[in-house]
Amino acid sequence: MGSDPHGRFVQIYEHAYRPILGYVLRRCEDPDDAADVVAETFATAWRRIDEIPSGDEARLWLYGVARRTLANHRRGERRHEQRTAALREQLAASPALAGSPPGEYTQLGQAFRTLSDDDRELLSLVAWEKLDTEQVARTLGITRNAVRVRLHRARKRFARALADAGIDLPLVERTAL
Amino acid sequence: MNLTDLARVHDDDLDGDPAGQASGAGARTLLASIMSEPPGQSGRPRAKRLRVPVPWLASAVGLAAAATLVVTLVVTPDGQIPNPSQTTASPEIQPSARQILLAAATAAMKAPSSGAYWRTVTITGMDATSPDRGYIIRRRFSKEQWLARRQGGQSWWITQNLGAKPLTGEDEAAWRKAGSPTQWKYPLDMTGLVGVNSSEVVRAAAEEKVAQRLRGKWKGSAGSLTAELVTWDELRRIPSDERELRAYLERRITSQAKSHGYENDPKDLELALQGNCMEIVFSLPVSPAVRAAAYRLLATLPQMTALGRVKDPLGRTGEALGYRVNGREGEGVYQIVQVIDPETGLPLSQSSTSTIELADGRTAKVENFTAYRQMGWTDEEPSLPTKRD
Lengths: 177, 389
Fold this sequence. Notes:
- The structure holds two protein chains of two kinds.
- By secondary structure, chain A is mainly alpha-helical.
- Helices cover 69% and strands 0% of the residues of chain A.
- Chain A folds into two domains: 1-99, Rna Polymerase Sigma Factor, Chain: A, CATH 1.10.1740; 104-177, Winged helix-like DNA-binding domain superfamily/Winged helix DNA-binding domain (Arc Repressor Mutant, subunit A), CATH 1.10.10.
- In chain B, helix 6 crosses helix 7 and helix 6 (242-260) packs across helix 8 (288-299).
- In chain B, the strands form three sheets. Chain B has a nine-stranded antiparallel β-sheet. Chain B has a two-stranded antiparallel sheet with strand order 4-5. In chain B, strands 7-8 form a two-stranded antiparallel sheet.
- Chain B: This is CU044_5270 family protein.
- Chain B: InterPro entries: CU044_5270-like.
């Protein structure tokens, strides 16, 4: 596989483009910023093509790259490069992104935002990216056991935040977690 | 509501969204740009990038979801600027850039300023190397933009891929020798090739027209200034006095630079100011007085040079103005050429030209251009094709 990096990268890109775009859009308020982060994520992947694991693990590996890119991006600049102009134009016209993010004003959303970045990311990977324990472990580069423990704690903290906000705990637990 | 519903989009929502398609314009352009670098290169990407916003290039890239384009401004290796292809020195004494811009300002005042839609019809051309680097083909695309002035009115893009054909007589001869292909299939590795995406197939035949409703951020927008969409209300607040316009644009540029973390070099400010004036002159539905003010402001900027009376890419005669854009360090200089109609003060075309070497050693000129066929107010309704995006 290593002999044809171009073909391999196109395959990875086509497979992972939508999940990565979704991942970034869910964590980035501004679609223009999201375009920059998606571009940087895949540019990093191209530079490190030899390190990308095979199969579906490529997607998990890319989540990890996107997570770090996003963290750096929040601190830094906004580039709006020429290469993302077409994507930005499509995102600007996207009906899915027309309104404000859901849950912005709901108690659930507010309770969720009181959690630490780490807790939110863990819960999001499960609820939004639909990853199982094994996949979360691979994405974050930690052991399955560590995932279980941290997830358990994050859920408890979320439950507490919900209880503080007066939300019916069992219902939410049943449907969300 | 549960945690899943807190997600702004779900991957399934992106199924039916043009932005969510790996085969879509945004994704393909990005892929091609990333893969234009050799793999495994760490450090700063070496892609040549423009420092200032060039709005017409951005809109050329986003032409149609079906038309996937890469816009790369290429400079000659020694940093020399290729001359614009159509420039012919006129025998009489050439007016200066300043004179041309001031005349355009006067002419612009005569434009009508009422209508239901601001309509812009453009033809975009992109020259591309054939996959074997034997000759150049020119790809053309048309785009109608209908921006509804009425609140709640529907705005539209109607786009069409007009196909591709060999550019010059020499290119046509080389094309015949290659068996007169009617489609060109490009490899994954685009080293040495320009004007298309990696693994794209370019066809000689034109495609159907496609209509696209403007939604999202484009809904109720009057176009873009400083690379941000502006509302009709914001547009009306742009001052028509030259000095106030300068102050207004400088405020906008500086506050944007701050929020985006750009460095704020006075040279950059000048260039950004120029880019903003170009956006006003070449795209926005501002009043004739504001357009005239933007022309007068441009006339005060030192970088513009008059290149004489030329034919634009659609064969119309106008006055050409050029300005140079300094790339990042080691990237040389780009030249961007605008052609304006001195009679109406309206734009005819904008283009960037560069040279590349073909497989047989021949040096070929490649051009990216946007030519404006119509720009102005209308009470007509768009004639919508049945095919929708």
